[in-house]
Amino acid sequence: MTSSSRPSFRLFTLSLAGLLVALPGCAVVAVADAAVTVAATGVKVAAKTVGAVADAVIPDGSSKK
């Protein structure tokens, strides 16, 4: 390698190393985001189910005669 290409090679190497370090962090954030989304959806479905069961079991006070 010539002395004039060393700074650009060093910059390329550091940039590549920075990208490789950042990628696993992005993957962790994506997995955590997916887990939170799944958990939130599960809570929403459970709340709707409990609400539907409660509506079916507890009378609302209106009686049809």
- Measured as a percent range, the helix fraction is over 70%
Envelope shape: rod-shaped
Structural class designation: mainly alpha
Question: What kind of sheet is the major sheet?
Answer: none
Quote the distance from N terminus to C terminus.
95 Å
- One letter per element, helices H and strands E, the order comes to H
| Residues in β-strands, percent | under 5%
Number of helical segments?
1
What is the C-alpha radius of gyration, as a whole number of Å? Answer: 28 Å
Tell me, rounded to a whole number, the average pLDDT: 78
Residue windows where pLDDT falls under 50 for at least 5 positions: none
β-strand number = 0
Which labels suit this protein?
single chain; mainly alpha; 1 helix; rod-shaped
